[in-house]
Amino acid sequence: MSEHIAKVSWVKQGEFSHESINRNHSIQFEENCSLQAAGANNGEVSDPEQMFAASLSSCHMQTFLILASKKRLVVESYEDEAIAVLEKNAEGVSHVSRVILTPKVVFSADTPVTKETLTKMHEKSHKHCFVANSINCEVKIQG
Fold first, then answer.
1. Are 108 and 62 in contact (CB under 8 A)?
2. Which of 9, 51, 77, 93 has the most neighbouring CB atoms within 10 Å?
3. For residue range 10-35, what is the model confidence (pLDDT) as tens digits?
C-alpha cells in the first residue's frame, strides 16, 4: 500500500454567492511542488477535468515507458494531448464520460517497432495503469 497526498486550499475572495463565487485555489503535492487551479475552462490555470486527463495520461505514459524499457525498446520522446470529455449522464449529472489519449511515441532509430507491437504495448499499458484501473469512464487511445 502507498498513499499519495494532494492538499487543496481555498480562501474566500469577494462575495460568496452562486453568482460570483471565486473558485481559484492551490494544490500542494510536495513541499516544493504546487500549482494554481480554478473552475473549468477558466483560460488561465488548470481545472479539475484537465488534471484528471493529465493524471491518466501521465500514468499511461509511465507504464508504457516501463514496458518499453523491459522490452529493451529505446524511447526517445513521448507526447500526448489528453482530452477529458465532460457530458451529462442519463440522470442529467455532469461527469467525465471519456478520456481520449493521443500518444505520439518516437523510438530510437535502431529500435524498429511495428504498428501492431505499438498497439499491443498501449493496450498492455492501459491494462496496468493504476489510474485507468481506478476510474469508470471510457478511455480511448488513438495514435
1. no
2. 51
3. 999 988 988 888 899 999 999 999 99
